[in-house]
Design goal:
6-stranded parallel β-sheet; Rossmann fold; LPS_LOS_Heptosyltrfase; alpha/beta; transferase; globular; 356 residues
């Protein structure tokens, strides 16, 4: 059987960090379908460092954004036209990107069949994402599968980790933290990210304190806690460290990192990662680290819709009781019950772990 020719594919996911990380399973699919497929991504400056780190990406093109000056928009259109792309896959459709792909002369343009922006696409896939019946990364994979069928390529089998690292990378990150913080390696290291970056609801700091105190009393091997933070969140993270230490619990503040990619790679050292539905949680998922996520109960942001893309046995998720009136009220989460659930479930998760 003749091998289909390689394709030059442009994928657009030009919004938040968590959204981009949930595109990695689709990128893995497109890159793995043919050894010579060229996969480019159009991303904003913020997520570009991780796009460069993605093993499934051959080329990173910066999107100047909706409000960019005319000369920048024109330069982007010229760059896409010069790229000679066979196909455009827009994972989240907007009129500007649809118009851009059409003006750039990309012959096969695929996107979800939503909003009036679909008029710019000649392949449209009905997904009804607003119903939140599947994880976001699965919706993305389905679009990638449809594109490969349209291009005449077979759909490859893919599985976590969607950010595979060299075997020694986790050991390197753990050794680095040992030297920086003096953490003993004999106990599990659990990372906790109390911030949200303003993009998602999260537990309060007081709830996280209650959770850590409860878990340390329930787990057979109480963890060492590393508190991570994003830009402008260091004071909150340090306050959490100080409060935990006042409770007699060993905790450390994640040291400053030189870049977003450096921060992301440090998460490989975690034996578990706890956060709201934020970019760091989805980085940990792509690395196939065990994750514990906290989500609102509203349909557009459920634990199913924004599920991390790690292996099923490596993720737990919690949200308040489903109630339209209080779907985002995270104070309704029973922290004691959550801690007991985690403690009961964790032995089966720890059994799959390869702590150096």
């Amino acid at each position: 059987m003749t091998q289909p020719r390689p394709q030059r594919i442009l994928v657009v996911r030009n919004d938040k960090l968590g959204d981009f990380m949930l595109a990695w399973p689709a990128l893995a699919c497109l890159k793995s379908a043919h050894p010579d497929n060229h996969v480019a991504v159009l991303v904003p400056t913020y997520t570009a460092p991780l796009a460069h780190a993605c093993p499934w990406v051959d080329e990173v093109i910066l999107d100047p954004g909706d409000g960019a000056p005319r000369d920048q928009r024109k330069a982007l259109r010229a760059a896409l036209r010069a790229g000679g792309f066979d196909a455009l896959l827009t994972l989240f459709s907007t009129p500007r990107i649809g118009w851009l792909g059409w003006r750039a002369g990309i012959s096969l343009r695929m996107a979800p069949a939503t909003k009036w922006a679909q008029v710019f696409y000649n392949f449209r896939i009905k997904q009804r994402r607003s119903r939140s019946q599947k994880p976001e990364y699965v919706y993305n994979q389905e679009l990638a599968h449809a594109l490969l069928r349209a291009l005449g390529q077979d759909i490859p089998a893919t599985a976590p980790p969607y950010w595979p690292l060299p075997a020694q990378a986790r050991d390197t990150q753990r050794q680095r933290l040992r030297e920086e913080l003096g953490i003993a390696s004999s106990a599990p290291w659990w990372f906790l990210h109390p911030g949200s970056g303003g993009s998602a609801v999260n537990l309060s700091v007081a709830q996280y304190i209650d959770l850590v105190v409860s878990l340390n009393g329930l787990l057979a091997s109480p963890p060492k806690w590393v508190i991570t933070h994003g830009p402008n969140e260091e004071a909150t993270a340090q306050g959490l460290v100080d409060t935990l230490e006042a409770h007699g619990i060993e905790a450390w503040l994640m040291p400053p990192r030189a870049s977003l990619t450096d921060f992301a790679l440090t998460l490989a050292a975690a034996d578990a990662f706890i956060a709201g539905s934020t970019g760091p949680l989805h980085i940990a998922g792509a690395l196939n680290r065990p994750t514990i996520g906290f989500y609102p109960a509203k349909r557009s942001a459920t634990p199913l819709r924004w599920q991390t893309c790690n292996a099923e046995e490596r993720r737990l998720a919690f949200s308040p009781p489903a109630d339209d009136a209080s779907a985002t009220d995270m104070s309704r989460i029973d922290i004691g019950a959550v801690a007991r659930h985690i403690a009961d479930a964790w032995p089966s998760r720890a059994a799959t772990e390869e702590t150096p």
